[in-house]
């Protein structure tokens, strides 16, 4: 029981015991004695109401001060932030009539592996008016406020984009139909050079199927891929909770020797967006061989390029993701790990699904792998496809899924939305980081 309540009870008891002894007093005196306890009770009620109103205002001020700290874009709470929290609270408390803050206690911030918590408390008094007649000049107030939020982690994204000739496939079923009409039966927009009689490149072949697609406004998978990367940048910019929380680097790859860094790691994500026009289909070789999808060399290069993944709590130790976008068919002139999974076509060409073991070295360094499988279009009217791809086509997706980290595999059927898959992959990476940390 508070001092205020004890004094009030004593005053009421004193008035009540005095009343019977005042038998010889006048009516006015008797009335005053009768009403005195009522006046004391009324005074107590008024001041108690003022006390509760003041507490509500102080609690609101404390909540605001704590939330101001917790809303800052940082994973740590420096001493200056705690000092500012106290200053903000005391400034707001000074606006409450009759209140004196006697103490303010900022708790020590608590960092777990996934959350940040902060608690603060205060004690204060509020001056009484009528209750002061009962020698109760002030009433005590105290309050506590706590807040907890998820820690936001720093993430580096490495985009590895398949730009081999097969990404020249028309993007939708309607585009495939239009492409076949425009080319008399071919759904792929082969990009080719012109050559002189000695085999030297002289320029672009303006009559190749790539230019046929452009002239007929037929959208290709490579164009959809550009759109998807642009959308990824926009979503990442909008999702940042820390300054420069996300950084990106972008590569394209095709054959054993051609792997191009289109944009080095940058915290300015619009640099990636500005580089998307450079995502284009690789040229077909002079001899028209199509062995231009070399996963093993490309992923090995990324393993040598990407540092070990960190815990993401600071910008110098980001969590690292590799995003691989591909149609999943390895078609290389080099040797491969899982030679028996596909076909050795001639002495210098292997065709087959990706070997999941190719991704092991990255995973062993805690680098998470996200894969968008732009599903390879079955071409059952093509004898080469029927001989060298169809026998293992059912293994393409499962092999890519086995390469991807858990939950980070997104297949996109012909005509499907690559942009939607890219955004889902990005959202899933953020969710996986929060769950795993």
From TrEMBL:
Gene3D superfamilies named among the record's database cross-references: von Willebrand factor, type A domain (3.40.50.410)
Protein name: Putative Flp pilus-assembly TadG-like N-terminal domain-containing protein
Database matches in InterPro entries: Tad_N, vWFA_dom_sf
Pfam families per the UniProt record, alphabetical: Tad (PF13400)
Source domain of life: Bacteria
Putative Flp pilus-assembly TadG-like N-terminal domain segment(s): 25-70
Natural source organism: Methylobacterium oryzae
């Amino acid at each position: 029981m508070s001092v205020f309540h004890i004094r009030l009870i004593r005053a009421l008891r004193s008035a009540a015991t005095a009343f019977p002894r005042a038998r010889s007093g006048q009516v006015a005196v008797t009335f005053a004695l009768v009403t005195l306890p009522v006046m004391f009770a009324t005074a107590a009620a008024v001041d108690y109401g003022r006390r509760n109103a003041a507490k509500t205002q102080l609690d609101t001020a404390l909540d605001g001060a704590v939330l101001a700290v917790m809303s800052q874009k940082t994973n740590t709470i420096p001493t200056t932030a705690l000092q500012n929290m106290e200053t903000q609270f005391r400034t707001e408390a000074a606006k409450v009539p009759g209140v004196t803050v006697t103490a303010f206690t900022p708790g020590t911030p608590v960092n777990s592996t996934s959350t940040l918590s902060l608690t603060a408390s205060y004690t204060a008094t509020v001056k009484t008016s009528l209750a002061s007649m009962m020698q109760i000049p002030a009433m005590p107030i105290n309050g506590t406020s706590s807040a907890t939020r998820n820690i936001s982690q720093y993430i580096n994204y490495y985009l590895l984009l398949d730009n081999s000739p097969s990404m020249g496939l028309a993007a939708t079923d309607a585009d495939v139909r239009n492409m076949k009409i425009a080319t008399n039966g071919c759904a792929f927009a082969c990009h080719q050079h012109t050559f002189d009689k000695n085999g030297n490149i002289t320029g672009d072949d303006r009559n190749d199927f790539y230019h046929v697609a452009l002239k007929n406004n037929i959208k290709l998978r490579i164009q959809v891929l550009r759109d998807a990367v642009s959308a990824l940048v926009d979503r990442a910019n909008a999702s940042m909770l820390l300054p420069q929380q996300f950084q990106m680097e972008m590569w394209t790859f095709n054959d054993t020797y051609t792997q191009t860094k289109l944009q080095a790691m940058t915290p300015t994500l619009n640099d990636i967006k500005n580089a998307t026009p450079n995502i284009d289909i690789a040229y077909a070789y002079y001899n028209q061989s199509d062995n231009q999808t070399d996963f093993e060399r490309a992923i090995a290069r990324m393993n040598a390029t990407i540092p070990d993944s960190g815990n993401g709590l600071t910008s110098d130790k980001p969590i690292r993701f590799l995003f691989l976008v591909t149609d999943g068919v390895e078609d290389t002139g080099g040797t491969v790990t899982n030679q028996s999974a596909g076909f050795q076509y001639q002495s210098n060409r292997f065709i087959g699904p990706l070997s999941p073991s190719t991704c092991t070295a990255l995973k062993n360094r805690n680098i998470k792998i996200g894969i968008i499988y732009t599903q390879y279009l079955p071409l059952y009217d093509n004898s080469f496809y029927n001989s060298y791809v169809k026998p293992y086509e059912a293994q393409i997706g499962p092999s890519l899924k086995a390469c991807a980290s858990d939950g980070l595999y997104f297949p996109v059927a012909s005509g499907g939305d690559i942009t939607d898959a890219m955004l889902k992959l990005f959202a899933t990476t953020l969710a996986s980081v929060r769950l795993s940390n």
